[in-house]
Amino acid sequence: MAANGVVSGKSLIVSFGEILIDFVPTVSGVSLAEAPGFLKAPGGAPANVAIAVARLGGKASFVGKLGDDEFGRMLADILKQNGVSDDGVLFDQGARTALAFVTLRADGEREFMFYRNPSADMLLKPEELNLDLIRSAKVFHYGSISLIVEPCRSAHLKAMEVAKEAGALLSYDPNLRLPLWPSADEARKQILSIWDKSDIVKVSDVELEFLTGSYKVDDETAMKLWRPNFTLLLVTLGEKGSRYYTKKFHGAVDAFHVNTVDTTGAGDSFVGALLCKIVHDPSILEDESKLREVLTFANACGAITTTKKGAIPALPTEADALALINGA
């Protein structure tokens, strides 16, 4: 830590957005109404990415707002316990920490019901941002949930602008959650409203279909989302691995086959692994063999995360990922 309370060093990954509590049924494969009980699991994609980075030995900080309540304090403690700096965390006296009820269907996929009306994360104001922290980021990562409503939307845009001016790589995983948006059209419009500003963009196959309106998950469809200023566009395909696109090359990397229990956090684990490697060696983005090696590592991290319930407990260490890659 630097004397001013900001994490020092240029290998810092700052993740911006929401941290919340997922309530997950104690029994898999049931609807919310049928669930006999729920376990609380800390979540929120940007927070998962920050913890994924820290779990892999990287330097991570989270920027976002929590309710000044038991759940908010619990989440701030979880960040700290997992090695993530909370220099960018704020507490709102008037709003609660966001909650989500998540059902795991029999196939391990998820359905969501959110309690945010409004939740504290939506009330982050531009003037409350820790700009010194944001300026110290080498990578600034964000999603799209923070674009849904003001004032958080303005805070998100300001944070991106400040990070970019300070020379950070901007990383974007839209992390589509349709139930949170007023309409599908509004979601598409706002998610794409900041598309051109990012350096690295990761979408899932479902998001690719949603954003392009195409039902084909192929190179041609992916290239509809390419922008000239991108360094890297990634499409994750679940058990089919991932595809990558840069200015000079593109290709695919196979997935690892594991016993999937819960897909929560797999994409966040993938992103955290990728950013953790890029922050130390940006030349990865220019070198296809290096990039393929890193994406193999990221695929392994994503796969491991699906083998346990909940995102944060399932996020792997570097040793876990290497053991899977090496077949140990």
UniProtKB/TrEMBL annotation:
<keyword id="KW-0067">ATP-binding</keyword>
<comment type="pathway">
    <text>Glycan biosynthesis; starch biosynthesis.</text>
</comment>
<dbReference type="InterPro" id="IPR002139">
    <property type="entry name" value="Ribo/fructo_kinase"/>
</dbReference>
<dbReference type="InterPro" id="IPR011611">
    <property type="entry name" value="PfkB_dom"/>
</dbReference>
<feature type="domain" description="Carbohydrate kinase PfkB">
    <location>
        <begin position="11"/>
        <end position="317"/>
    </location>
</feature>
<keyword id="KW-0119">Carbohydrate metabolism</keyword>
<comment type="function">
    <text>May play an important role in maintaining the flux of carbon towards starch formation.</text>
</comment>
<dbReference type="InterPro" id="IPR002173">
    <property type="entry name" value="Carboh/pur_kinase_PfkB_CS"/>
</dbReference>
<keyword id="KW-0808">Transferase</keyword>
<protein>
    <recommendedName>
        <fullName>fructokinase</fullName>
        <ecNumber>2.7.1.4</ecNumber>
    </recommendedName>
</protein>
<dbReference type="InterPro" id="IPR029056">
    <property type="entry name" value="Ribokinase-like"/>
</dbReference>
<keyword id="KW-0418">Kinase</keyword>
<dbReference type="Pfam" id="PF00294">
    <property type="entry name" value="PfkB"/>
</dbReference>
<comment type="similarity">
    <text>Belongs to the carbohydrate kinase PfkB family.</text>
</comment>
<dbReference type="InterPro" id="IPR050306">
    <property type="entry name" value="PfkB_Carbo_kinase"/>
</dbReference>
<keyword id="KW-0547">Nucleotide-binding</keyword>
